[in-house]
Every structure is written in structure tokens, then in C-alpha cells.
Design goal:
By secondary structure, the protein is an alpha+beta fold. It has helices at residues 8-17, 28-37, 57-67, 122-127, 151-157, 167-170, 173-185, 191-201, 219-235, 238-247, 256-259, 264-274, 278-283, 289-296, 300-315, 325-332, 339-348, 353-361, 372-377, 384-399; strands at residues 23-26, 49-53, 73-79, 84-91, 94-102, 104-107, 116-119, 137-139, 145-146, 159-160, 188-189. 48% of the residues lie in helices and 12% in strands. The model has no long low-confidence stretch (mean pLDDT 92).
Length: 403
């Protein structure tokens, strides 16, 4: 086995370190290699390498470091109770990132909540995956391809097939990942998987645990959905990915209004032009954007931006000629709003476009034609009167601007 762009010596050293335990290459590297070698897809570039170890990942990493040259390892970070290790290497001058994990099994006592995870074998670990095309592995010692869920057939048919009938019920974020793969690989959802998706989402939102409010999903799901959506919006062809998610009915996971939203392409396009986070622009189409921000646990800065945008929309007239240029500037320069809120208003189509755009690109950069230093030299003392005169002179200048 050879992987384009990966120094061959690394694979031989990995196999050497795996001599005493079962270690396999899993996930996207196996999928992309088969697509390239067997199905003639263009090589998508060297991915991060995911390894699964039957046993403790940290013990395998220690053996690997013993067989590699001492100068090879740059950093090793261990995470979690099962010792997942991120290992940064430099092989032949090339940086390589390895993600080494212990083989695990998982169950979902409460659907959509965080799973209960235990140590397991490689077969258990492959059964945890989202789609069959990601549930293949290459045993490093023997070079054998392991495909217990028929991923090779699905690669040939260019389809995304969920591993079992309760996949989305257990973890709805798998659907967002599916949209990411659909956009990146050009795959479609298998018919039986689409049937599962629609049947499962028909009952959304869900509530299982005693004491949950009606229609409330587990709180942990919101964070996982946000993380998957951020990856979709930041790393994938987001137009194609969101279109696939909407086609499958999956935007209801975020908000029912987003599932019927037909303006998201415009909002996200202009958000990118104006430097507004795409996640914020997407949330702006929800029935209650601030509630969605709370459910997804968006960063405080993004939550605050949505609040400022809503406040601006609440006081902004819908006609450009409803205010003079100085009055528009006074409104938009209120400290409760800010340039990002104006940019989001432009992206979302809220309010008259012309004064918002002119303020963002020109008016806010216009100052008094006479500087404070000049006014002081003319005898005006520093203080409130000086500030008032500067504002008056700027307003006179703004009066000369056209809406």
C-alpha cells in the first residue's frame, strides 16, 4: 500500500510498530485512496491519517516513537479517558498529522445524546462509523482491506449508505456529515438511507428523558450540531452541502424555518463578502435567531452580533428617504449596533440597501473637514463644546452626500 504524497518509510515504520498489536488505517484516507486507485477520482490531497489500535493508543504511539528517528516527532497530545493521541511528525521534511485512537464500542442509552463508549475491537470501531464508505480499514501488519459493511460497493455506486436503521435516530449529526461528503465527493444518499432520514426527521424535535420539556432534544446535541455545521460552512463547498441537507429535510435539525428558507444562498454569499461569519448569516433566517444561537451554543461574539442585528432591524426605517444622511449616520453609529450588524442587515436584506451600503463603504469614514487641532488653534477650548462643533461640521459635510 502506498499513499500519494506520504513518505513510504512512514508506512513501513507504522507496520513495524504494529507488529505486537492490531493497528489499522481507517476513515477518509482509506476511502479516498480507493476512490483514486480503483475509481480514478482525482487525488484530493493527503488527509490526516486516522489509526485505530486494539488496545491502548498511547502504548502504540510509544512503540512508534521508538522505531522512528528521534528528530521525527514534533508533538504528541493525549486526549480523553481512552487516550486518543494526536501525533505531529516530520518525515523527509514533510509534516504529517496522525490521529491514533483505541478501538471502541459505543451505545446510545438516550438517542441523540453523547454515546456511552467502552474499549472494543476493530470490528466494533468500524461499526461506530456514519456511512459504509467510512467504515473500511487497512490492517497495517497484513495490508488486508477490511470492509465489513460493503463500502466498496457503495463507492462504486457513488452513494452514502448509513450503517444501520437507527443511525440518524442515535446521532442526527451524521446527516450533516453526510451533506459534507455529498458536496465534497459528489455522492447521493442511498434510497434506503433517505427513507430512514425522512422517517426519523418526521418526528423531530424529540424528547425521551423524564423531565425534558416537550419537543426538547438533549442539550449535548446542540454543541455537536454547531461543530459539524462550522466544518460544513468553513471547509466544504457550502452551497452544495447546504442544498443537500435541505433537500433531505435536515435543516429542520436547526430550525423549521431554515428548512423552508429560500434566501440562505443570498445571505451567506453576501456575508462572505462583508466578513460576517456564515453561521451567523444562516442563523439569521431562523424563526428565533437568538434561541437558535443558544441551542447551538454559538460563541458569545456571534450571539451578540445577532442581538445587535435584531436591535438594528427593530429601529431601522424601511425607506431610504425616511431619514437624512446625517440621521442615517446617527442611527447606524449608535453603540448598540456596530458595523458587523449593518453588514448582517445588508446580507440578510433587512432595511433599505442603499444607505446601509453607503454608510458601510463611505459615510462612516467621513469626518469633520476641520480637525480638532485647527479648532483649538482658533480658540475653541478642549471639552464638550469642541466635540459638539466637530459633530456639527461633520453633519454639514454629510448633508452634501446623496442617498
Amino acid at each position: 500500500m502506498d499513499i500519494p504524497g506520504l513518505p513510504p518509510i512512514l508506512l513501513s515504520k507504522l507496520a513495524e510498530a504494529a507488529a505486537d498489536s492490531r493497528v489499522a488505517l481507517v476513515g477518509g484516507a482509506v476511502r479516498d485512496l480507493l476512490l483514486h486507485r480503483v475509481h480514478n477520482d482525482p487525488w484530493r490531497g493527503l488527509p490526516d491519517l486516522d489509526l485505530v489500535v486494539e488496545g491502548r493508543a498511547s502504548a502504540f504511539v510509544q512503540r512508534l516513537l521508538e522505531v522512528l528517528p528521534a528528530s521525527t516527532a514534533r508533538a504528541a497530545r493525549e486526549h480523553g479517558a481512552f487516550g486518543t493521541v494526536e501525533l505531529e511528525l516530520v518525515i523527509a521534511g514533510q509534516p504529517v498529522l496522525l490521529d491514533v485512537a483505541s478501538a471502541r464500542a459505543e451505545t446510545y442509552p438516550v438517542p441523540a445524546d453523547n454515546p456511552r463508549v467502552t474499549l472494543g475491537c476493530l470490528t466494533d470501531d468500524l461499526s461506530r462509523r456514519d456511512f459504509s464508505i467510512n467504515a473500511m480499514a487497512v490492517d497495517l501488519a497484513s495490508g488486508q482491506l477490511l470492509d465489513p459493511h460493503g463500502g466498496q460497493v457503495d463507492l462504486q455506486r457513488r452513494r452514502l449508505r448509513l450503517l444501520h436503521g437507527g443511525s440518524i435516530h442515535d446521532d442526527p449529526t451524521r446527516l450533516v456529515r453526510g451533506a459534507r461528503y455529498a458536496a465534497r465527493l459528489g455522492f447521493g444518499l442511498a434510497a434506503e438511507s433517505e427513507t430512514q432520514v425522512r422517517a426519523t426527521l418526521a418526528a423531530w424535535p424529540w424528547s425521551w428523558r423524564p423531565g425534558d420539556s416537550p419537543g426538547e432534544a438533549p442539550a449535548a446535541l446542540g454543541t455537536r450540531l454547531r461543530m459539524e455545521m462550522e466544518l460544513l460552512l468553513e471547509r466544504e463547498p457550502w452551497r452544495e452541502a447546504l442544498a443537500a441537507l435541505q433537500q433531505w429535510g435536515g435543516l429542520v435539525l436547526l430550525d423549521p424555518s431554515l428548512q423552508t428558507d429560500r434566501q440562505w444562498r443570498r445571505r451567506l454569499h453576501w456575508a462572505g463578502r462583508f466578513g460576517v461569519p456564515r453561521m451567523v448569516a444562516l442563523a439569521a433566517g431562523a424563526s428565533d435567531p437568538l434561541a437558535l444561537a443558544e441551542r447551538l451554543q454559538l460563541p458569545h461574539r456571534q450571539h451578540r452580533l445577532l442581538a445587535r442585528w435584531q436591535a438594528l432591524c427593530g429601529v431601522m426605517p424601511q425607506r431610504a428617504d425616511a431619514l437624512s444622511v446625517p440621521a442615517w449616520c446617527a442611527l447606524l453609529e449608535d453603540h448598540r449596533h456596530g458595523p458587523e450588524a449593518v453588514a448582517l442587515a445588508l446580507a440578510s436584506g433587512a432595511g433599505p440597501r442603499r444607505p446601509l451600503l453607503r454608510w458601510l463603504l463611505r459615510w462612516r469614514q467621513l469626518h469633520s473637514p476641520v480637525s480638532a487641532h485647527t479648532l483649538i488653534n482658533r480658540g475653541l477650548r478642549p471639552g464638550p463644546a469642541l466635540g459638539e462643533e466637530l459633530r456639527r461640521l461633520r453633519a454639514e459635510r454629510l448633508e452634501q452626500e446623496r442617498l
